[in-house]
Amino acid sequence: MANRLPVDRCKDSWHTAPGGLVSALAPIVKAESGAWIGWPGTCDETIEPFAADGMHLVPIPLSCEEHRQYYEGFSNAVLWPLYHDLIVAPQYRRDWWRTYEAVNARFAQAAIETAAYGATIWIHDYHLQLVPRIIRSQRRDVRIGFFNHIPFPSVELLAQLPWREAVLNGLLGADVIGFQRESDVTNFRNASQRFLGISPDRVSNVLGAYPISVDVDAIREAAESESVARLSRQLRHDLGSPDVLMLGIDRLDYTKGIPHRLRAFEELLEDRVLAPETTVLAQVAVPSREGIGAYQDLRDEVERLVGRINGRFGTLERGVVQYFHQSYSFEATIALYLAADVLLVTSLRDGMNLVAKEFVTARKRRGGALILSEFAGAADELHRAIIVNPHDISGLKNGMRQATSLNGDDAHEQMAAMAATVEDNDVHHWAHSFLNDLQQPTDASSPLLKISTGNTTRTLQEVKHVGR
Ligand code: G6P
Fold first, then answer.
1. I need a surface site. Which of 29, 191, 272, 375 has the fewest CB within 10 A?
2. Pair 415, 208: CB distance under 8 Å
3. Residue 179: beta bridge partners?
C-alpha cells in the first residue's frame, strides 16, 4: 500500500510507472498473488479494482477536495516540511487533519477487505501513518509493516504537530517500522518515549534502519547498452561539448537545495575558477506538486537564478546553465549520468536520495565525481563522495572545485568503491530484508499491541475500532 498506484494512465491503458520502489515490489506482489492499494492519480473518479502488468490493483478514490486537503495539504504542506526540518513553515490546519484521518481510514478499510487471512501488509510513507493502527484494530491475523521513505524529525520538531500522539499511535500499530537512517530510528524512539511514555527498550525491537536502494541490474544493463551510450554522446554534444559538464537531477522541491548549488556555481564563474566558455551546468528539475504555493515560489526563484546566471555568463551560442523543467525516461536519465562529469546532490534534508545511488551505479567503470550533501541519507553509505554542507556556500564551492580537478585514477577508484557499496545493498536486498524481519514473531508484551486512548492505555483486545 502506497499513496500512489505503481501505474500511470496513458489514454485507455495503464503502464507501470518507472522507479526503484516499483521495480522492487512489483515482482514480489506478482509472485505472491498480492495486491497494490493506492490512489490512481485522478480526482472525482471511482475506478474498480483491475489487473495491470500482472498485478491486482485496488484504486482508492479521492475527491478533488480530499486531494487538496489530504495530499497537497496535510501530507505535503504539513508533514513534508515538518519532517524535512521546517525548510518552509507547516500550516497546522484542523480541516486538513480531519481529511487526512478520513482518507487514512479509507485506505485501511480497503486493506482490511482485500487482505487474505494471515496476509502481510506493507504500508509505505508519510501519507498513510494512521493506517497500521486502524488495520490492527480489526485484523489480528495479519502482519503489518510500515516504511517511512522520508526523514523522521527530532522530538523538538515533532513537538509542534498538534496530532503527534495520534501519528505515533497510528504507526505503532505496525509489527515493524522501518526508517532510512539510524538517526530516524533514534528520533522515533525518543518521540514515543516523550509523547507516549513508552520506554526505549520496549519499542526498539520493532524499529529498524533499512536504507532503500536502486535496481542495480536494470541501471547497469541500461548503462552498458549501445543505444544509451549513443544517446549520452549526443546529449553531451547537444549541451555544447563542454570540458566540464555538471549535472543536477531533482524533483523541483525545496528540500533539494537547487538555489544553493546555483549560487555556488555563479560565484565560481564570477571568481573565474570555472570558465563559462567551457563549463555547463545541466539542471533537470522534474515538475512536482505544482498546486502548492511553496513549490510555485521555488520554481520562480530557480528560474530567476538561472536567468540571472545565463544573462551574466552565457554566450550568444548557449546558456552556461541548461535548465529543463521536464521529466525524462529512465534511459535518458542514465544517458545524462553517463554524459556528465560531476553530479550535484545538495539536499537540505533528504530521506535517502536515489539519484546519488543511480549515478554511482551507472558510472562504476567511468569515474566522475559525486558531490553529496551530508543531509541526504545516502551520505551514511557513500563515504567516498565529496561530502558538503549545502548551507555553507564557500564549502560547496570548494567541493565543486575539488570535483572538477579530481585526478582520473582517484575518480575511478572512488566511483567503483561507491558502486560496490550500492551493489551490496540493492533495492531487492532492501525489500527482502524488511520483509524477512516482518515475518519474525512479535513479542506478546510489545507496546505495539497496545493502544493509548486519551489518558488510558488498553490492549487491542479491548478495543474494537480505532480511528473512524
Ligand atoms: C518522495 C516521497 C514519495 C513520493 C515521491 C514523489 O520520494 O517519499 O512517497 O511518491 O516523493 O512525490 P509525489 O508527491 O509526486 O508522489
1. 272
2. no
3. 209
Coil vs helix vs strand at 452: strand
Residue 435 cell numbers, joined: 520483509
Question: Do the beta carbons of residue 211 and residue 352 sit within 8 Å?
Answer: yes
Residue 169 is inside which H or E element, if any? helix 164-171
Q: Do 129 and 205 lie in a common domain?
A: yes
**Beta strands at 342-345 and 244-251: parallel, antiparallel or unpaired:** parallel
Q: Is 29 in the pocket of ligand 1 (CB under 6 A)?
A: no
Q: What separation in angstroms does the CA of 175 have from each of 8, 121, 170, 428, 449?
A: 31, 10, 12, 21, 9
For residue 15, give the CATH number of its domain: 3.40.50.2000
pLDDT, one tens digit per residue, over 111-132 is: 999 999 999 999 999 999 999 9
Which triple of cell numbers denotes residue 34?
498480492
pLDDT in tens, 178-225: 999 999 999 999 999 999 999 999 999 999 999 999 999 999 999 999
Cβ of 150 less than 6 Å from ligand 1: yes
Measured in residues, the chain has a length of: 468
Tell me which residue has its CA closest to atom 7 in ligand 1.
Answer: 149
- Centre of ligand 1 to C-alpha 376, Å, is 16
> Is the distance from the beta carbon of residue 4 to the nearest atom of ligand 1 less than 6 Å?
yes
Whether 90 and 235 map to the same domain: the answer is no
50-52 and 55-59: which strand pairing?
antiparallel
For a ligand 1 pocket test, name from 74, 149, 347 the mutation site with the most ligand atoms within 8 angstroms of its C-beta. Answer: 149
Domain that residue 248 falls in: 216-424
